[in-house]
Amino acid sequence: SNDNNAGSGGNESLCGAPFPPRPKAIATFLSSSNFLDGCQTMLHSLKTHLAPTPDGEYPPEIIVLLSSKVKNAAKKVEYLCPIFCIASSR
């Protein structure tokens, strides 16, 4: 039997080294440009209303997936970028 992870609750690698902390993630899918304003509103709400991240933990990653049907994806990302750059006052 291999007891390398015994008692670790799965938080250690096979060699006994601890895994790095894993951030949580919040993801959304932008299927068309028609939903861009709603996506921006949702992202702003997330950034301003998420509970503070406890010390020693990473804040959740915020991921926006774009459909290949979204035209001018780079411009859409620029449109959403200010939301990702909001400084947290917490």
Tally of individual helices: 2
Q: Pairing-aware structural class of the strands and helices?
A: alpha+beta
Give the helix level as a range of percent.
25-40%
Number of strands: 2
Give the N-terminus to C-terminus distance in angstroms: 48 Å
Give the biggest beta sheet.
2 strands, parallel
Enumerate the strands of the largest sheet in spatial order, edge to edge or round the barrel: 1-2
Strand content: 5-15%
Shape: elongated
As a whole number of angstroms, the C-alpha radius of gyration is 19 Å
Sequence stretches where pLDDT stays below 50 over 5 or more residues:
1-8, 86-90
Order of helices and strands: EHEH
Overall residue-averaged pLDDT value: 76
Provide an overview of this structure.
- There is one protein chain.
- The chain has 90 residues and is of the alpha+beta class.
- The protein is 29% helix and 13% strand.
- The protein has 2 helices and 2 strands; from the N terminus they run βαβα.
- The protein has helices at 36-49, 73-84, and strands at residues 25-30, 61-66.
- Strands 1-2 form a two-stranded parallel ribbon.
- The model is unreliable at 1-8 and 86-90 (pLDDT under 50).
